[in-house]
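Hello,

Our lab assistant flagged a job as stuck in the queue for most of the afternoon. It eventually completed. Since we weren't sure the result was trustworthy after the delay, we are filing this so someone can double-check. Below is the sequence as submitted and the structure that was eventually returned. Let us know if re-running is recommended.
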Amino acid sequence: MQTVLSNLLAVYRRELQSYFGSPLAYVIAGVFWLMGGFFLVVILFSPEAGLLAQVAQRDQVRQMGATLAPLDVAYEFLRAYLGVLGSLSMFVLPILSMGLYAEERKQGTLELLATSPVTNWVVALGKLLAVVTFYVGMVLPLMLCVAIALGNAEPPVSANLLLVGNLGLVLLAASVLSLGMFLSSLTSSTVVAAFMTFALVVFLWIVDAIARAVPGWVGDSLNHLSMLRHFTGFTQGILDSSSIILFLSYSLLGLFLTAQSIEALRFQRN
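-- returned structure --
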């Protein structure tokens, strides 16, 4: 057990160092922060979209004599912004996962990795934990900006929504990155790996729209596979066990398929 943990930690450190030493990773983080900051300002201050539009509409309704419940500005902002970060992540995560194994295959080190004494599961898990850690490091500065923006909100921001929403982002990232890691193990082209991951993620993101056109249990099954539907629950502060199980299942599926892919390569070499 101790050997497994030490091997896992070694893979994790190596992969994490490769991300923090990669210029491409900093470019990805920079673009993510730029877009995240842009939408943060838009949601907060744009008169055409975001919270100001909601406030203006509610003022018009009040002037007509209607009685409305108080608007929880912090909740509405955080819910909207978490949804934006989830959508942005759909573009960023395939790029982060594209080189997890494709670069190994391109450089000819995948064969050495396949025949090493370290198990395929340990290598795959170490790679996944490293890239998820890097993604969390990308999200944290934006969440700090959100905390500053909502520091004096009245009523104060819901800690439950903040925790559950960020948990949803991490689970979503782990699912996409795990599936992308498997697709990366199938090709030596990082571009192809990113494209395949993006296509798969788009399908899983909007599959609920497809499910509505399919009657019966097939439609119900497809609807349950939707990442968007389950992630939306997290952005509303709803901690649903079925959503957690779904994202964990996607993560485990990606790990399993990756390990089997590398095992097949080891079998071919033998």
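-- support follow-up --
The delay was a queue issue, not a problem with the job. The result is valid. DSSP finds twelve helices and no strands in the chain. The chain has one domain: 2-22+72-269.
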